[in-house]
Every structure is written in C-alpha cells, then in structure tokens.
Amino acid sequence: MIELLRSGLLDAVPHGFSTRVGLAADDVLPGAPLVRVNQVHSPDALILRDIWDTPPTADAMVTDRPGLLLGIVTADCAPVLFHDPEAHVVGAAHAGWRGAHGGVIENTLAAMVELGAQADRIRAAIGPTIAQASYEVDEGFRAQFGPDDAIFFVAGRADHWQFDLPAYVVHRLQQAGVTKIDDLAQDTYAGATKFFSFRRSTHRGEDTGGRQLSVIGLRN
C-alpha cells in the first residue's frame, strides 16, 4: 500500500510526494501520463505544452495543460511543487543545492509567470529533503555561498558546516515573491525506513539508486 505525503497548501490540485514505497500516476491523477525530464542539477525550467517523445534535459517543468502529471525524482535534494490556483498553472522543480543556488526556483517561477501566474498567488510545497542536522559540508562547499548566506550554515566539526537546504529553498522562494510556502520537514537521511537518501546510502556503502517521486497536475 502506498504512503502518499501531501501538502494542505496544494489541496486544490492532484499532487503527492512518495516515500520509498513509490507511487504510480494513477494513484494521484487517474489516466494521466507521467511526464519527466532528464535531471542534471541544472537551473533550467521548461514549459510543457505537449508530451515530449524524449525527456529533455532540465530540472523543472511547468504547465497549464490539464490531464498531465509532472514528476521529478529526488533522494536528498528538495522536491518543490507549485500551484497558482487562479491562473491554473502548476510546476515541479528538483532543487538540490546546485540548482537552488543557480536559480532553478526563480526560473520555475518565471516560466509559470509566462503562462499567466503571479508570484504572490503561487503556493509552493517542499517535500522530503535532507535536513540541516544530516547535511554536513566542507569549506569548499561553504565558499560557494556568499556572506549573506551565513544564516544557512552552522559550524560543525573542524572545517565543516551543517547546511540547511530546506531553509535556503524557502529563502529563494521568498526572495522571488512567494509567500505561501509549506515545508513538510521530512528528513530523508534520518528517515531510513521511510525514504531513500543518496548520502545515507553512500555513507553505508549501499545501493544509491533509490529515489522518491513527487508529482503534480491539473484535472481535466
């Protein structure tokens, strides 16, 4: 039996964040094709008008077409689902630290605006993501962020930091004008029985192939 996580902010549209049990498109929007992209930790967001034959390279999608289910996969990075209830536009973004730092959040919002959305109407939900207590980074990682980002880092062991990816994603959303944000606050690393975690699997020498699927779409 699937365990589907949902956000109250997105109750108006079919959506869900999977656990390690997974989900199928029919669990969320029966009859809808699941549309995905070839994710590469980029800042790129695409507008989906028709189902593509070969998934293009990008890390976010938006659409105003009903009957399609947008899906992105993650295993520590932040899955972010978006909805403008007035413009009837939805989006899904894979926001790892590289993508978030590079602008995938802003690019997703810009693509939604191109379809008639407005930032102050958009609702965003952040699904299962590695939490700060579980996300140790080194000085080289920290150096890629500026002084204004210091609030997202807490000093850890010598020459290491704990990075708050969910808070950083919230910050980027707020800076772009989004005020309705729901962070489900589910730590992929700590939730070993519930979620896949690339970092946890790497640390344990386990298979790193497992992913969560996060989906959103519009009803016909």
Automatic annotation (TrEMBL):
Sorted UniProt keywords: Hydrolase, Metal-binding, Transferase, Zinc
Entry keyword Secreted: no
Pfam families: Cu-oxidase_4
NCBIfam families registered for this protein in UniProt: peptidoglycan editing factor PgeF
GO MF: copper ion binding; hydrolase activity; S-methyl-5-thioadenosine phosphorylase activity
Species this chain originates from: Erythrobacter mangrovi
Keyword RNA-binding: no
Stated family: Belongs to the purine nucleoside phosphorylase YfiH/LACC1 family.
Name of the protein this chain belongs to: Purine nucleoside phosphorylase
Lineage, opening ranks: Bacteria, Pseudomonadati, Pseudomonadota, Alphaproteobacteria, Sphingomonadales
Catalyses which reaction(s): adenosine + phosphate = alpha-D-ribose 1-phosphate + adenine; inosine + phosphate = alpha-D-ribose 1-phosphate + hypoxanthine; adenosine + H2O + H(+) = inosine + NH4(+); S-methyl-5'-thioadenosine + phosphate = 5-(methylsulfanyl)-alpha-D-ribose 1-phosphate + adenine
